[in-house]
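Suppose you are handed only these lines of text.
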Amino acid sequence: MNVLDSELAATSLIEAGYQPVSAKRYADVILFNTCSVRQHAEDKVYSALGRLKHWKEQKPNAIIAVMGCMAQKDKDTIFRRAPHVDIVLGPGQLRQLPEIVKSVEKKREKRLEISLERTSGKQSDVRKSFQQFNPLRNLRVGNNPYQAMVRIMFGCDKFCTYCIVPSVRGPEQSRPPREIEAEIRQLAEQGCLAVTLIGQTVNSYRYSDGKKTWRLQDLFAMIQEINGIRRIYFVTNYPTGMTDELLQSVRDIPKVTPFLHVPVQSGSNSVLQRMKRHYTAEEYRDLLDRIYATIPGAAITSDFIVGFCGETDEEFQQTVDLVKYGRFKNSFIFKYSVRPGTKAAELFQDDVPDSVKRERNNELLGVQNAISMELNQEFVGKTVNVLVEGISKIAAKSCTSSNLLQIDSPSSQPLVQLTGHTPCDRIVVFDALSEQINQLAGQILPVTITHAAPFTLFGKFSKEKTLDSMPVPS
Ligand code: SAH
Ligand code: SF4
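From them, the structure of the protein bound to iron/sulfur cluster can be written out as follows.
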């Protein structure tokens, strides 16, 4: 969500006549897009702001802006903690960014623009104060010209007790299907091959247009018909919304990838209850069984919080058991971070010592990494479809320092390492001739996997296999 917001902010500033620069000494405006999900992310922003104090003294006309969830959460406290900040802008005010930057340049007065608090007025006013911003996109502003995130809904109404998102991103609101379709058609015209539909709980998508109520699977069917789009990803799913109908649509609609991110957070029922997650560990296990039984080659990923208030060793071991059961492609594991303003902060003690959180984090990561490695090893010898993005970042970095370019190709032309993703969202790195880069980037190609690491597959481009003969997806 934040990556998309950053892309939209950059695009709108470029359209207003600004240009990105490579170092802060060239900048007239410095913009921080912030996250409030954990304390650590906020600490990093405050210390980065602290480091800019001297810079701003040297360049008093420069503008520093803090936007995103931390702006919405900390409001004018940001001006108090960092008086050299000029603009504080919530995620629901993104569309005003260029106009506000211009006005601060002219008038030299501070601006605080945020949405209403969720409990501060009529629901319709609160909703309106989280303004939507879906401008025409420029794929070249992002990292990958073949892939784009498309926001299909805003906000969250789940109120998990640990989570700050519902108060900083506002009430859940789904975008009209026609608007989503227009955006994706326009992306396809720019050469986009893969879209990732995003929302805090993307499978809660629901939009009534008078004639029918659209759900996520209806969007899939609509995007399936858009020429040029080859893959549809979607994140993040809330477990109770994984209906049979949705799973069957993932199986049956060819462009939808068999990659499902379904965060469970904990394997212990008592912890899930304290988190107010509305399902049990048994129900989640049933869901995993249903996914694996319905969708061939499904890759599931999850999020976990370790050391949540009152978490005992036993409760943690139940999470370890669930990770073993789940055979997740990978998991994102976080140490619980108390968020002022949430129910957990109000009701429970943050009583698991940091050292225990760290141990649990490492233990769970160890279990997960071993599984990721085992699953990746199953790909060795198989051929997968890779949407080629370009030169591997690791290779690109190494090319300047060491020499990852190998000069042992049959035609004695230099080889480069290209990278891309499989439909199940695995990263693949493979060798290609350097002269082929432009021709291969933006293609979906068969690559035969020769070896595996926990997070990356390595392979060879299988020229002899044409894409049409490939089973989809693998
Ligand atoms: N809407 C998504 C993601 C929300 S934030 C979802 O529900 O899955 C991403 C992840 O951050 C969450 O899944 C959770 O694992 C983690 N997270 C949220 N609040 C946290 C907190 N207070 N401390 C630690 N991790 C947290
Ligand atoms: Fe936060 Fe829960 Fe909403 Fe995800 S579903 S954003 S974890 S409140």
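What can we learn from it? Residues 397-409, 466-474 have pLDDT under 50 and may be disordered. The chain has three domains: 2-114, 126-377, 383-461.
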